[in-house]
Write a structure and sequence with these properties.
There is one protein chain. By secondary structure, this protein is α/β, with parallel strands linked by helices. It has a single domain (2-257), classed as Rossmann fold, CATH 3.40.50.300. Helices cover 41% and strands 16% of the residues. The protein has ten helices and eight strands. The chain has an eight-stranded mixed β-sheet, with helices on both faces. Helix 6 (152-158) links the parallel strand 6 and strand 7 (169-174). The longest helix has 16 residues, at 2-17. The relative contact order is 0.14.
């Protein structure tokens, strides 16, 4: 029994330190190379400009469960533009948790939008409304799904929550949605504190060239480049470019270079 306990304790510590190995051995989920980079990076701030159907939310759900299981008392917040979207990522997290050893500590609470482990950790799904966030503090992990479509006011409300959490992480994941908003600003202007991950559809072996060719025929070129190739495009029908407006606001930027 003692030998078994020591072995179990060793495996626990290995899985705590290596989320990628834990995913493979416990969740039977094998993250892509880009997802492994996110999981193993020490960066507190991560922005993922990743193609549709590349596995952004699956990776984030696995990270949420790993944080909650191995670090007691963790608060994990999942934020999306709508409650339905937040709930979808929450359901992915719950499916992963169901694969964790059933003799583990279990759940103290389980609702559609909130799970609480008996170790005190919580994973809470929230809609993209500022009032829903202000009651939380010191989260260990914030996942902002579909970040390019989350209101900028919400993004401003999120950042101060990390002020009293020295190790708290913020992960933005999305495809582009025009050259506006905090997702675009961070991607183009964010400093070295941000780990920037870009993955295009042709880098995902699960997405075939034939599928992409068909998608290209059924979308505008702008929509296709944003959804599958991470390119920030001007809004459809825009008469003036966002770069032109920036040059007007900043005289140091020459309109001749736009």
């Amino acid at each position: 029994m003692l030998c078994h306990d020591l072995k179990a304790g060793l495996i626990w510590e290995v899985h705590k330190a290596d989320a990628v190995l834990w995913c493979a051995e416990v969740l039977h989920y094998h993250p892509d190379v880009w997802a492994q980079k996110v999981m193993t990076s020490p960066a507190r701030y991560v922005i993922e400009n990743v193609s549709r159907q590349a596995g952004k939310s699956t990776c984030s759900a696995a990270m949420a469960v790993h944080q909650a299981v191995f670090f007691p008392g963790s608060l994990v917040l999942v934020v999306s533009p709508t409650l339905r979207q937040s709930g979808e990522l929450q359901r992915k997290a719950m499916k992963f948790y169901e694969l964790v050893d059933p003799h583990h500590e279990g759940l103290a609470e389980d609702t559609k939008l909130s799970i609480q482990l008996t170790n005190g950790s919580r994973i809470i799904a929230l809609p993209g409304q500022e009032d829903n966030l202000r009651g939380y503090s010191a989260p260990a992990l914030i996942i902002e799904d579909e970040a390019s479509r989350v209101k900028d006011e919400l993004a401003v409300a999120i950042r101060p929550m990390l002020a009293t959490s020295s190790t708290g992480r913020l992960i933005l994941l999305s495809t582009p949605n025009g050259k506006v908003g905090h997702f675009h600003k961070i991607w183009t202007e964010g400093g070295p504190e941000w780990l920037k991950i870009k993955v295009t559809a042709d880098q995902i072996p699960r997405i075939s060239p034939e599928f992409l060719a068909n998608e290209r025929l059924n979308m505008t070129e702008s929509q296709f480049l944003q959804e599958y190739y991470g390119e920030f495009q001007e809004a459809e029908g825009a008469v003036f470019s966002s770069d032109l407006f920036k040059s007007l606001a900043n005289p140091s930027v020459s309109a001749m270079n736009i």
